[in-house]
Design goal:
The complex is a heterodimer of chains A (406) and B (159). Chain A has 406 residues and is of the alpha+beta class. In chain A, 45% of the residues lie in helices and 12% in strands. Chain A is globular, with a radius of gyration of 22 Å. Chain B has one domain: Beta Polymerase, domain 2, CATH 3.30.460.80. Chain B has 159 residues and is an alpha/beta fold. In chain B, the strands form 3 sheets. Chain B has a 5-stranded mixed beta sheet with strand order 1-2-5-4-3. In chain B, a hairpin with a 4-residue loop joins strand 4 and strand 5. Chain B is elongated, with a radius of gyration of 17 Å.
Chain lengths: 406, 159
């Protein structure tokens, strides 16, 4: 393109045309005002724009404006074959790609009818990497949440520990965040020699760090003061809004798809589902949600230990083992509709597929993103709070805008 | 807990014509568009069905040949651990269906997204502004015959 060409014509009405405000300025009383938060602001965790109608310092209504990171996932998925969709799936929830890949691969395998023929070793490796990534994702959630409300040190601690996980995953597949490791029907590659030992070393290193983190951040009096009794989300409201994951469990419902659906090898593993109990305030407040995430890290550690045990003893690495043995050469499911879902760190990630039976390309692939539904409850729980508490509530939702906007 | 056929009996009392499709996963009840709100209300309220969660709501454009569009509802009942898929088939020229946002508030954003992506009108929806796209974006991108606009703000769309 010639450089002298004007690429963008500035007009003062551009912003109003593309994202008009929901609330009107005329008719406001003198103490009422509309405040714009974001999209470029660190406490909004990406590019979330919040339009806030305030009465003094009290919030009357919040209108989230999303779509700044919309990358047309569903349109892309309609133009590439099933196996080539996986990199796009990675980029949805970019801090927990393994979990998203797992859900997607599971859905296509079910459509092909090979879901129950996947080798056990492959399934255990999938669960192992997914749980490692779940810890990394919860670390981001807890660390950035602490930073949102003024605790700076724990952020560095969790980033340090997350770095170990990212390096482990980099060792497995060569990428730090966007892996493309779990393939339809198998894995890209077996885990490297010595990985099991290195991973259990890491787990042993991590355990004391977790209690350290709990003392410094979760049980910290300042943190408790900022989060307890703030943004209380009752259970019935959470279900009605389709809120899932740690947010729903924080509201006191013992519901986890790893148990409820029992997909992959999760039924063979022993772990608990932590729920919010209102220890520091009311059930379903911001503190409960963070506490649930912290407890889930402990549970993931338990799962990883069991997986490593299985991978070392029962389903050992052998010369004959080929992680791609079930990877189909041609992915052409029969004509059908299918909805598949899995427990991501942030909630229920669902994929709705329609295959037409005539092509290798999905006719329709809809992603039901967990952060999307979780964010939609924000206007409901932030009515009547102070603006400083709004930041605390947004942080406790654990948003990844890549997934909200897709 | 009801199995799929008992569920169909419950729906039959309310809907005029329905079709079942057992090849999908979860199994599907295809309804005609005026019935959807009644049926959803019943499935939500009835203590023996109790579908308290709307997992996913989406649209499908079947293309110019079939000349239909669909709206797909994936319902889930947490206490019964029970799924069902509902489908509504709409004409492509004037796709219009009742909103279920008053029953499950998840539907609010999902319907907004479906409306902007497919041009399906959800009557009775409280707030059908565009959600992911800019308000001045032209067309409905997930329609099969979608042609993107030449320029957006004097920036060429296609490269």
């Amino acid at each position: 393109m010639p450089t002298d060409q004007v690429q963008y014509k500035y007009k003062s009405t551009n912003l109003v045309d593309s994202e008009p405000n929901k609330f009107r300025e005329d008719g406001l009383r003198s103490e009422e005002m509309i405040i714009n938060l974001g999209p470029q602001h660190p406490s909004t965790h990406g590019v979330l724009r919040l339009e806030v109608l305030m009465d003094g310092e009290i919030i009357q209504e919040v209108a989230p404006h999303i779509g700044y990171l919309h990358r047309c996932f569903e349109k892309h998925a309609e133009s590439v074959p099933y196996n080539q969709v996986i990199p796009y799936v990675d980029r949805m929830d970019y801090v927990a790609s393994m979990n998203s890949e797992h859900a997607y691969a599971m859905g296509v395998e079910r459509m092909l009818g090979i879901a129950y023929q996947i080798p056990k070793r492959v399934e255990y490796i999938r669960v192992l990497v997914a749980e490692l990534n779940r810890i990394a994702s919860h670390f981001i959630a807890i660390g950035t949440y602490g930073m949102d409300i003024g605790a700076f040190t724990p952020f560095f601690w969790v980033m340090r520990d997350r770095e170990h996980i990212l390096r482990l995953l980099e060792w497995i597949c060569g990428a730090r965040l966007l892996y493309n490791y779990i393939w339809i029907g198998g894995l890209y590659y077996d885990i490297p020699v010595g990985f099991e030992e290195r991973c259990s070393e890491f787990i042993n290193y991590l355990k004391p760090k977790l209690s350290e983190l709990e003392t410094v951040l979760i049980e910290n009096e300042i943190f408790v003061q900022r989060t307890a009794n703030v943004g209380v989300l009752p259970m019935d409201l959470a279900i009605n809004y389709g809120v899932t994951g740690p947010m729903l469990r924080g509201s006191g419902l013992r519901f986890d798809l790893r148990k409820a659906d029992g997909y992959s090898v999760y039924p063979e593993l022993d772990f608990n589902i932590p729920i919010g109990e209102g220890k520091k305030g009311t059930v379903g407040d911001c503190w409960d949600r963070t506490w649930v995430r912290m407890q889930e890290v402990h549970e993931s550690v338990k799962i990883i230990e069991q997986c490593l045990e299985k991978l070392k003893k029962e389903y050992k690495r052998t010369k004959e083992f080929d992680p791609q043995v079930m990877v189909p050469k041609k992915i052409r499911p029969q004509a059908q509709d299918l909805y598949v879902r899995a427990e991501n760190p942030k909630g229920e990630l669902g994929f709705f597929f329609r295959a037409d039976g005539k092509s290798d390309i999905p006719f329709r692939c809809k992603a039901r993103a967990c952060s999307f539904s979780n964010l939609s409850v924000l206007p409901e729980i932030s009515r009547g709070v102070l603006i400083a508490d709004l930041i605390a509530i947004v942080g406790s939702i654990d948003l990844v805008m890549g997934e909200v906007d897709r | 807990m009801l199995d799929f056929h008992q569920l169909v009996e419950v729906v039959k009392n309310l809907a005029n014509d329905l079709r079942i499709d057992e090849k999908t996963s979860p199994k599907t009840i295809v309804l005609s568009s005026p019935d959807i709100k009644k049926v959803c209300q019943e499935l939500y309220q009835n203590p023996s069905t109790y579908f308290d969660m709307l997992s996913c709501l989406t649209g499908i454009d079947n293309g110019a040949e079939a000349n239909t569009m669909e709206v797909v509802y994936n319902l889930y009942s947490i206490p019964f651990n029970h799924h069902v898929m509902l489908k509504v088939i709409l004409p492509r020229e004037k796709p219009e269906v009742d909103s279920v946002a008053a029953i499950w508030r998840t539907a609010n954003w999902h319907e907004r997204e479906t409306a902007e992506m497919f041009g399906i009108k959800f009557t009775g929806h409280p707030d059908l502004r565009k959600l992911l796209l800019p308000a001045d974006w032209e067309g409905n991108p997930l329609r099969k015959d979608y042609q993107h606009q030449e320029k957006y703000r004097d920036v060429k769309v296609k490269y």
